[in-house]
Here is the input.
Amino acid sequence: MITLKRPTEKTELMRLQRKYYFDISDLNKIEVSALVSKNFLVKVDSVNILVQKPKKSRRGKMNITRRSRSRIAIVTLAQGHSISLPTLDKAPQEEQSDAQ
Here is the structure.
């Protein structure tokens, strides 16, 4: 399974360098490249995978739990290719009625 990571300030800046962040489950680089190429109809230049270790958190005084680990794929697209995504600065326009 592959999902696009929610847009943040860092991911928006990396989009200018043709790099896109995806949350992945247990896929390798070849599978990520094939899925992105197939779903978005783009040419993938490189794929880097990061593994975020589970973090400890407390619930009460003695109960210590762990958050699950997550994997992130950073996909760099070839020159001239891009994925069209909605940007953060565009807010939906509200319709105003003329009440006279």
